[in-house]
Design brief:
MetI-like fold, 14 helices, 2 strands, disordered N terminus
Length: 322
C-alpha cells in the first residue's frame, strides 16, 4: 500500500504490472522537491532571520541590560522596566498616545464608514470620487506630508486665518500645547481612504434582498442601517478597528515632523514611539529604549486580545445573522 506503483502502458493480459517507481527513488524525488522549495524560500527566510527575528531577539536581550551603543551591554535585570514607571516623561508618552488612539481611531473609522455609505450608491463620477478619497492614504505618513501639515497649522497659515475669519480665535495649532495633538488627529482622519475601501467591499457583500424585505416591512433608512447594515458589516468593522488601532499605536513620522523634531511644545505630541526614539538614538540609552519597545508590544498585544474577546458580543457573521 505504501509503495508507488506505475503501470506499464499496454501490458499484455495476464501479466503482472511492472514497477517503475521504487520506494528509494520516490524518497529521493521528494527530497529534491523539498530542497527546491527551501531554495526558493531562502531569500525570505534569510530576510526574516536577519531583519526581523534577529533584531527582536537582540532587543529582548538589550532590554535587560545597560547599553549605550558604545560600551558592551551590562546585565541589570528588570531595572529598565522598573525605571519606566518612575519616569514622568514615559508616563506622559503613554497618556498622549492613549489620547491619540482613543480620539483619532473612532473619528477616522466614522468618516470612512460615512463616505463608504455615500459611495456605495450608484451615481455619476463614482470612480473619480473613490480614487480622490483614497489618494491621501497612498501618500501615507510621509515626511513631505508632515511638512505640509505643519505649514497648514502654523501661526498665520491657512487654518489660522480660516478660524480667525469664522471668529474662532487665532494662533497656530503647532505651537499651542492644547491643540497641536488635534492637528495630528486631523491628519490621521484625513487619511481615511484605506478603511473606506474595505468598508466599500463589505457593503457590496450585503444581500439586497434583506433591504428589500425591510422596506416591505416599513423599515426606514436608520432602521435598515442599524438592523441590517451594521450587523452584516460588523466583521469588516472589527477588522478595521483592529488594524487602525494597531497603526495608531505606531504613530511616529507625522508627530516628529509636525512638532519640528521636538515632540511638541510641553511634550504635547510626545507619542510613545517619539520618546522611544529620543531615548534610543538621541540619548543612546538602547537598553531603556528596548524595554520601551517590548512594553509597547505587550500593550498592543493586550489591546488586540481585548478586541478579539469583545468580538463575541458585537461581531455577527453571516451564519449568525441568518
Amino acid at each position: 500500500m505504501g509503495t508507488a506503483v506505475t503501470l506499464v502502458k499496454d501490458s499484455p493480459p495476464g501479466t503482472a504490472p511492472a514497477r517503475l517507481g521504487a520506494p528509494g527513488a520516490v524518497r529521493r524525488r521528494r527530497r529534491g522537491e523539498n530542497l527546491a522549495g527551501y531554495l526558493f524560500m531562502s531569500p525570505w527566510i534569510a530576510g526574516f532571520l536577519l531583519l526581523t527575528a534577529g533584531p527582536m531577539a537582540a532587543s529582548l536581550y538589550f532590554a535587560f541590560t545597560d547599553y549605550n551603543l558604545f560600551d558592551a551591554p551590562r546585565w541589570i535585570g528588570l531595572d529598565n522596566f522598573t525605571a519606566l514607571f518612575d519616569d514622568p516623561r514615559w508616563q506622559k508618552s503613554v497618556e498622549v498616545t492613549a489620547k491619540y488612539v482613543v480620539i483619532g481611531t473612532p473619528l477616522k473609522l466614522l468618516l470612512a464608514l460615512g463616505v463608504a455609505l455615500l459611495l456605495a450608491q450608484s451615481r455619476r463620477g463614482q470612480a473619480f470620487y473613490r480614487a480622490a478619497f483614497y489618494a491621501p492614504s497612498l501618500i501615507g505618513a510621509s515626511v513631505s506630508v508632515g511638512f505640509v501639515w505643519r505649514a497648514l497649522f502654523s501661526d498665520g497659515a491657512v487654518v489660522d486665518r480660516t478660524q480667525s475669519f469664522l471668529g474662532l480665535g487665532s494662533g497656530g495649532w503647532v505651537g499651542d500645547p492644547g491643540r497641536v495633538l488635534y492637528s495630528l488627529v486631523a491628519l490621521t482622519v484625513w487619511q481615511f481612504g484605506a478603511p473606506m475601501v474595505i468598508f466599500l467591499a463589505g457593503l457590496k457583500q450585503v444581500p439586497r434582498e434583506l433591504y428589500e424585505a425591510a422596506e416591505v416591512d416599513g423599515a426606514g433608512p436608520l432602521r435598515r442601517f442599524w438592523s441590517i447594515t451594521l450587523p452584516m458589516l460588523s466583521p469588516v468593522l472589527f477588522f478595521n478597528v483592529l488594524l487602525e488601532t494597531i497603526h495608531s499605536f505606531q504613530i511616529f513620522g507625522s508627530a516628529y515632523v509636525v512638532s519640528n523634531t521636538t515632540c511638541g511644545p510641553a511634550d504635547a505630541t510626545l507619542v510613545y514611539t517619539c520618546y522611544l526614539y529620543q531615548k534610543g538614538f538621541k540619548e543612546s540609552q538602547m537598553g531603556f529604549a528596548s524595554a520601551m519597545a517590548w512594553m509597547l508590544l505587550l500593550a498592543v498585544a493586550l489591546v488586540t486580545a481585548v478586541l478579539f474577546w469583545s468580538q463575541k458580543r458585537w461581531v455577527h457573521y453571516e451564519e449568525d445573522v441568518r
